[in-house]
């Protein structure tokens, strides 16, 4: 069967325009318009590569689609000479399937479109960590994430990084819940985030968290304060969503310093609700506890509405870590009792630095038993030898 017709001038112009004059092979991006500028076609290094071959008997050929799509821009990719040869290598044809090449083309064109829609904006990857709802559903809709990060950022990839916490079949009252889910979180982080940061693939993370507070604190610890990231939280009023409202009076954060002398310190994080001292002491029975507190100027679940206020919280958390260590010594046992929005939980973990700050236990409130120890950030407690 004969080959389909060669790409028309219109098809060529469309492909060149959508590709931005650069090779669309994943990870290449080589600029290919040099020969057009000089007019020296002997230096031509650009090719329009067919995804489904125009020859039905060619690589990725099809008896019907080869002719139908031979002049279709959606079936053509702009490529440099080496990568044009690469995708048509008979020894590698199973690697470069129609689906693989279409995905390369889509990602290249989507990224170019996002970058050019706001050239000065940073490209951000979406990271969603959430409890599952139903079968493989997330509690953080992708559209809500995209609405929240624009116009300050452009979307780096329409495929978000998803870390899902198991749903109803695995309750947080299960003794294995936190070890299992935090182990899952660490594995996914190492596989999908850490390596990509080191390779320079992730320029900025837009973080959307809907999970138990101890898990979100661990996520913050993994990200640390060294990673470029912006944290978003769900807001109920006036319009439910994940965009920072940035309205109304700002929220301030202050601290209450506990008495010196004790080697057991409790830090209350009072933002969404009050935490009484007797609830803390009930969780640490028989111990001489020095109780500290970070407290917002207004207490409530919907009070943290301005993104800029989160910076004040971060600064105070860092100071509190330093002050507790200075007052109680490096061997103090620190326990944290949080009543905070998800954003504050993530940022609390991000502020913590393993070489500078104390390790701490994270407690979580339960209806039946009050505050329960759920997780530890940092090395395990040292157990003194008995004589």
Descriptive report:
It is a single chain. The protein has 387 residues and is α/β, with parallel strands linked by helices. It has three domains: 9-111, no CATH class; 121-232, Rossmann fold, CATH 3.40.50; 253-377, 3-Layer(aba) Sandwich (Rossmann fold), CATH 3.40.50. It is built from eleven helices and 13 strands. The protein has a six-stranded mixed sheet with strand order 8-10-9-11-12-13, sandwiched between helices. Strands 3, 4, 5, 6 and 7 form a five-stranded parallel sheet that branches. A two-stranded antiparallel sheet has the order 1-2. Helix 9 (277-283) links the parallel strand 9 (264-270) and strand 10. Helix 7 (177-198) packs parallel to helix 8 (213-223). The radius of gyration is 27 Å and the shape is elongated. The mean pLDDT is 88.
In short:
The protein has 387 residues and is of the alpha/beta class. It is 33% helix and 20% strand.
Question: How much of the sequence is in beta strands?
Answer: 15-25%
Identify the strand order in the major beta sheet: 8-10-9-11-12-13
- How do the SSEs run, as a string of H and E? HHEHEHHEHEEHEHEEEHEHEHEE
Q: Indicate the CATH class of the largest domain.
A: Alpha Beta
What is the count of helical runs?
11
Overall helicity: 25-40%
User: What would you say the CATH architecture of the largest domain is?
Assistant: 3-Layer(aba) Sandwich
Structural class: alpha/beta
Total strands: 13
CATH topology of the largest domain: Rossmann fold
Distance between the termini: 90 Å
Q: Spans with pLDDT under 50 lasting ≥5 residues? A: none
Residue-averaged pLDDT, rounded? 88
Largest sheet: 6 strands, mixed
Using the alpha-carbon principal axes, give the shape: elongated
Rounded Rg: 27 Å
